[in-house]
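Design a sequence for this backbone.
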C-alpha cells in the first residue's frame, strides 16, 4: 500500500502570533511591564531608605534647612560679607532661634505644669460625676473600661507615627549623631552646594547630564519656594490659634500657656495637616481644663476655622500655586508618608512630591534643551 505524503505545516512566525493579539491587550501589556518595573524600582529605593534611615533623615532635614538658609547666605554675600562669615551667621542665628522657641515652650510648660496637673485631676473627677448623674448612668468601672479602650485604640493607631519618631533616634546617642549629621551636611551644602551638585551630575552618562542638571535646579527652586510658603502657613496657623486663645481668655477670665501653644503650633505646622491639628487639640484640652466645656467648644471651633482657612485658602491658593501640587495630593502624600515612615514621612512627603512633580514635568517638556538654567518663572509660572 502506498504511503500518503503528508502536507508539511508552515511554521508560525512571532509577527503572526502578535497580530492575533488585540491591540488593546498589547497596549495594556506594554503599560503593565513598565508599571511593574517602576514599582519595583520605587520599592527598592524605599527599602534602601528604610535601611539607611539614620542617615537619610538627617540629610533630608539638612536639605530643607539649606533651602531656607541659602537665600540668606547669598543675600549676605551680595552685601560683601565673606562667605564663611555669612554661613556662620546664618547657622548660628537658626540654632539660636529654634533653641529659643523650644526653651520658651519648655520653661512655660514646666512653670505651669503643677497647676495644670491639679486642674486636670479636678476636671476628670467632675467629668466622671457628670457621666454618673447623666442619663447614661456610667459607673467608675464602665468609665475606666472606655478610657482603657480609647487609650488602646490610640496606641494602636498611633504606633506608626510613634515608631517613625523613635526610629529617628531611640537613644540619646542616635539623637546626637543625627543632630551632628544635620549640622555638618547643612554646613557643607551652604559652603559648596554647587560643587556637590556638579559632582553628582558627573556621575551620570554625559548625554543625560544637561537634563539632570537643569531639572535638579528646577527642583531646587521649587524646594526653596515650598520652605518659604510653609513658614508663612505655619505663621498663619500660630497667629490664628494663639490669637483665638488670647481673645477667649479675655472673655472667660484668662487662658494660660497662650505663647507656648502658639509657638508649638508654629513648629508643628511644618508637618502638613497633622501638626497643627495635634497642637490645636492641646489648646482645646487646656481650655476644657481651665475654662470649662463651653470655652473648649469655642476653642475647638477656632482650631477648625484656622484649619479650614489653611485647607481651603492657603493650601490651594498659596501652596498650590507655589509648588503646583493639588491639596488632595498633599493630603494623600502626608497619609502615605506617615504610614511608611511615621513623622519623618509626614514631614518630607509634600516636598518630595513637589520636587518630583517639577523635575518630571521639566524633563518631559524638553525645556532643559532650550533653558539649561531654569528660573523661578520657568518652573513656577505663577510665582
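Sequence:
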Amino acid at each position: 500500500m502506498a504511503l500518503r505524503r503528508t502536507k508539511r505545516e508552515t511554521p508560525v512566525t512571532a509577527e503572526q502570533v502578535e497580530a492575533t493579539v488585540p491591540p488593546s491587550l498589547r497596549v495594556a501589556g506594554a503599560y503593565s511591564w513598565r508599571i511593574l518595573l517602576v514599582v519595583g524600582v520605587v520599592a527598592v529605593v524605599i527599602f534602601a531608605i528604610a535601611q539607611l534611615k539614620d542617615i537619610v533623615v538627617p540629610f533630608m532635614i539638612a536639605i530643607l534647612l539649606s533651602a531656607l538658609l541659602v537665600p540668606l547666605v547669598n543675600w549676605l554675600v551680595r552685601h560683601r560679607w565673606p562667605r564663611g562669615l555669612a554661613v556662620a551667621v546664618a547657622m548660628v542665628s537658626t540654632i539660636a532661634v529654634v533653641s529659643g522657641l523650644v526653651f520658651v515652650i519648655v520653661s512655660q510648660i514646666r512653670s505651669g505644669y503643677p497647676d495644670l496637673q491639679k486642674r486636670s485631676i479636678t476636671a476628670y473627677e467632675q467629668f466622671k460625676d457628670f457621666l454618673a448623674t447623666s442619663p447614661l448612668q456610667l459607673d467608675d468601672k464602665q468609665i475606666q473600661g472606655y478610657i482603657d479602650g480609647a487609650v488602646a485604640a490610640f496606641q494602636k493607631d498611633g504606633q506608626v507615627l510613634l515608631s517613625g519618631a523613635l526610629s529617628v533616634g531611640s537613644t540619646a546617642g542616635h539623637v546626637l549623631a543625627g543632630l551632628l549629621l544635620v549640622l555638618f551636611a547643612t554646613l557643607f551644602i551652604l559652603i559648596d552646594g554647587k560643587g556637590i551638585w556638579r559632582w553628582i551630575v558627573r556621575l551620570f552618562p554625559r548625554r543625560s547630564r544637561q537634563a539632570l542638571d537643569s531639572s535638579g535646579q528646577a527642583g531646587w527652586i521649587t524646594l526653596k519656594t515650598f520652605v518659604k510658603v510653609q513658614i508663612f502657613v505655619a505663621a498663619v496657623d500660630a497667629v490664628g490659634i494663639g490669637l483665638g486663645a488670647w481673645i477667649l481668655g479675655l472673655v472667660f477670665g484668662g487662658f494660660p500657656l497662650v505663647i507656648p501653644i502658639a509657638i508649638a503650633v508654629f513648629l508643628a505646622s511644618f508637618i502638613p495637616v497633622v501638626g497643627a491639628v495635634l497642637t490645636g487639640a492641646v489648646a482645646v484640652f487646656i481650655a476644657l481644663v481651665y475654662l470649662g466645656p463651653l470655652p473648649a467648644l469655642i476653642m475647638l471651633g477656632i482650631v477648625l476655622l484656622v484649619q479650614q482657612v489653611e485647607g481651603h485658602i492657603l493650601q490651594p491658593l498659596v501652596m498650590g500655586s507655589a509648588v503646583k501640587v493639588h491639596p488632595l495630593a498633599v493630603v494623600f502624600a502626608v497619609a502615605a508618608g506617615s504610614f511608611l515612615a511615621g513623622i519623618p514621612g509626614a514631614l518630607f512627603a509634600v516636598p518630595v512630591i513637589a520636587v518630583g512633580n517639577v523635575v518630571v514635568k521639566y524633563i518631559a517638556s524638553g525645556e532643559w534643551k532650550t533653558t539649561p538654567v531654569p528660573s523661578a518663572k520657568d518652573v513656577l509660572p505663577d510665582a
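The chain has one domain: 51-379.
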